[in-house]
Amino acid sequence: MRLWLSGIGISAAGVPDWETAKAIIAGDRDFEASEYRYRAPELLSGAERRRCPASVKLALDVAEQARIMAGLEGTDMAGVFASMTGDGPIVTRSLETLADNPHYLSPTDFHNSVHNAAVGYWAIATGSRHGATSLTAAEESFAAALLKAAMQVLSGDVPVMLCAYEVPFLPPLDVKVGIPVPFGAALVLHGEPPAASLASLDIVLEEGETAPSRPLRDFWSGVFDTNPAARAIPLAEQIALMEPGETPVVRVGAVGSSMLTVTLAR
Amino acid sequence: MTVQSHPFITAVATVNCLGAGLDATLAALREGSSGLRPCDFPGADFQTHIGRVDGLEDNPVTGSLARYDCRNSRLAEMTLLADDFAGQVGDCLARRGARRVGLVLGTSTSGIQEGERAFAERTNGALPDWFDYRFSQDVHATTEFVGARLGIEGPCMTVSTACSSSAKAFADARQLIDHDICDAVVVGGVDSLCLLTLYGFRSLELTAPDACRPNDVDRAGLSIGEAGGFALLERPRGAGKALAVLEGVGESSDAYHMSSPHPEGLGAFNSMQGALRAAGIEPGQVDYINLHGTGSKVNDLVEARAVMSLFGGDTPCSSTKGWTGHTLGAAGIVEAVIAVLAIREGFMPGNLGLNRSDPDIQTNVLTEAREVDVNRVLSNSFGFGGNNCSLLFGRAT
User: Which residues contact B126 (CB under 8 A, 6 or more apart)?
Assistant: First the structure.
């Protein structure tokens, strides 16, 4: 399956956007460790902007970065959103309320607790009426989402916003889940070469036992090993570093007993 | 992409509050006997009706996969055993090879009941040691359990788009076959009762005090149910006998509100129209529509408006949630199984709970079951986040 990429977004502690990521990956700028800061999504209006869950802030942040780079309207895209856990803080808070006084469960928390909250807010914010999905394959959610996005791009007639995101839970559930820091990444994918293509992606499922590619830069290791959305990092690094004529290969992750492998080209 | 032939459905299974197996569901639909009962789910302390599956408390997941034990995976296991669905998948795996068979399941809450139990047992704020989030509460846990249980080695993923989850699983399954990644896909969903959904829908004032009454003028909301369901979707070449074919899938977003549908039913209209377009058929060629029909004031009205604008007032339609309750992430597969049964049996279910019609609902809602040839069924599933999916099933030719 061949796809083309026209936009990319990324968000992690110390790496607020793709421009910063590119500079750090290329070694043009030093990585500075810092606390992660959520940005309120400008796409949403007043109350929703302030009150929307952390996972929605993160997902809309990276999706909006990628959309702007692609130069597209959100209405022109289908959505494939992927997360292992949905919104950890809302799930934690809801479980606490259900144990302590279930009659106090907040209706807003309940509708925000659904796994597809982020893609739902994305559709509301952009006005996209195309099909939109929210999926998980646990630690391998990014590989599953890339496969789904590829099939969706090639089955439909609009580009696809692929968005992977993961945020930490609150105590006491956080220690059971083990995702200490947020990470999000988004890609805008096409079935035909767009006007400004960043890369082409040839996607195959390879048989045989192989391990996924690891990040080239050490500072990503912590987030890569604990946050399923960070499986996007090796692909993002190669997109940042790739020179014309190069065709780097990235083993993204397991899909069933196969390895989803991407060959990039300019 | 070239036009592909429609995938066959060669096996189906469901367990819901009507019982385990296809015969239990079919008999109840024909007799007009509901599976709903006054809420007796432990910890749910308010007046409503639920669709509860008996026997889950006494049938833990054991053996090498015991780590996955939770209400949701128990329900999955019970459904795999119903009508020997697991055995039929085993034959398919032998025929196709395990790598060529995929798995796509829908759920909204997976095994979150384990989390609810764990929070009730906190000591000094900490959760008990027995609580194993990754293998029970995790959204993908039951899917992983089913994949391991069946020995599936193809792609394995979970769709979680609230109440459209297991309908949308059909879209992914179809794409896996169309793009030659799989020859067969086990598709379906499992959602089990838990306090989060019971109190959650109550907090939104969407649960009915008595059994739900979809499309009735006095309808007062939902009855929450639990269910498991599976279908085996196969590439026609090399497939067994088809019970039905998947002719089309339509998907859309409302882009309107997280928990209220678009007032004119625009998303519902678009997803139904998408399914017809994918199949290349006209509205008049659909014999029966299984409605999302939750029993909420707004949903039923908005869905009726969308059906009226696309089909007019003649096409027979009904909601079967008066029998099963709203099984949320499993609703799509339960109603897909009912659609397949309707085609196989030549039968359109009525609309249990509908006593007085709503003057604002102008569609042809069936009040009684009809024994009549059924060649095509459209099944609607709409979820929170304005996430809509319509499935079109046809008779195998």
Answer: A172
A192–B contact, CB cutoff 8 A: no
**Is residue B330 within 8 Å of B189, Cβ to Cβ?**
yes
Q: What are phi and psi of B157, to 5 degrees?
A: -145, 165
| A206 touches B: beta carbon within 8 Å | no
The CA distance from A133 to A121, in Å, is: 12
Tens of pLDDT along B62-78? 999 999 999 999 999 99
Helices B165-178 & A141-155 angle (0-180, nearest 10): 70
Cβ–Cβ contact A116 with B under 8 A: yes
Question: Which of B156, B163, B182, B317 is flagged as catalytic?
Answer: B163
Write down the pLDDT at residue B336: 98
What interface predicted TM-score (ipTM) does this complex get? Answer: 0.97
Tell me which residues of chain B, numbers 353 to 372, contact chain A at a CB-CB cutoff of 8 Å: none
Residues 40-79, chain A, touching B (beta carbon < 8 A): 79
Residue with tokens 């990470």: A183
B107 to chain A: closest CA residue: A115
Q: Using an 8 Å CB-CB cutoff, list chain A residues near B143.
A: 137
pLDDT surpassing 50 at residue B1: no
> For the structural domain made of A2-197, what CATH number should be given?
3.40.47.10
What is the Cα–Cα distance from B166 to A87, expressed in whole angstroms?
20
pLDDT digits (tens, 9 = 90+) for B161-213: 999 999 999 999 999 999 999 999 999 999 999 999 999 999 999 999 999 99
Q: Is position B262 annotated as part of the catalytic site? A: no
- The distance of B31 to chain A (nearest Cα, Å) reads 35
CB B336 within 8 A of CB B16: no
Percent of chain A with pLDDT over 90: 90
| Whether B317 is catalytic | no
Q: Is-catalytic flag, B326? A: yes
Could you tell me which residue, A51 or B84, shows the higher pLDDT? B84
- In the beta sheet, which residues pair with residue A149? none
| B140 inside 8 A of chain A by CB | yes
A17-59 confidence digits (pLDDT tens): 999 999 999 999 999 989 999 998 988 888 888 889 999 999 9
Q: How confident is the model at residue B4 (pLDDT cuts 50, 70, 90)?
A: low
Burial letters B295-325, b for 16+ CB under 10 A, else e: bbeebbbbbbbbbbbbbeeebbbbbbbbbbb
| Cβ-based contacts of B131 with chain A (< 8 Å) | 176
- DSSP class of A129: -
Q: What value, to the nearest 5°, has the Cα angle with vertex B394 and ends B391 and B397?
A: 150
Using the beta-carbon criterion (under 8 Å), do A172 and B387 form an inter-chain contact? no
CB-based contact A98 B119, cutoff 8 Å: yes
The domains located in chain B, with CATH, are 8-394 (3.40.47.10)
Beta carbons of A144 and B157 less than 8 Å apart = yes
How many Cβ contacts (< 8 angstroms) between chains A and B?
217
Do B176 and B93 meet the contact criterion of CB atoms below 8 Å apart? no
Render pLDDT for A123-154 as a digit per residue (tens, 0 to 9). Answer: 999 999 999 999 999 999 999 999 999 999 99
| Chain A residues near residue B389 by CB distance under 8 angstroms | 131
% of chain B with per-residue pLDDT over 70: 99
Q: Are B174 and B246 in contact (CB under 8 A)?
A: yes
Q: What is d(CA B110, CA B95) in angstroms, rounded to the nearest whole number?
A: 31
Instruction: Look at residue B2 and tell me whether its pLDDT is greater than 70.
Output: no
